Amino acid sequence: MDILDDVILLIRSTRPVSARIDAKTNIYTDLGFDSLAYMELLARVENAFGFEFSITEMEPCLVAGALADMIKEKLEHDQKRAVQQ
Description:
There is one protein chain. By secondary structure, the chain is mainly alpha-helical. It has one domain (8-84): Non-ribosomal Peptide Synthetase Peptidyl Carrier Protein, Chain A (Orthogonal Bundle), CATH 1.10.1200.10. It contains four helices and no strands. Helix 1 crosses helix 2 and helix 1 packs across helix 4 (64-84). It is globular, with a radius of gyration of 13 Å. The termini are far apart.
C-alpha cells in the first residue's frame, strides 16, 4: 500500500462515504466534509504517521492527493533530520 491508499482509508474511517476517492478528490466539495470532520481526519493522520500539521499546512491538503503528498514530504523531512542527528 502507498500513502494515498492510507489516506483513503483514513478518510473512509473518519466519514464513511460511498463515493470513489482518488488523488483528485476534494475532501470538502466531493465528500461533504465540514471543518470538524476535516480536523478529525487530520488528527487521525497525525496519529497514524506521528507528526503534527501546522495551521499553514492544512489548507493545501483539501485534496486527497495533496494530503498524501504533504505526508510524504513530512516523512522524508523527518527521515533526513534523523539521519543528520
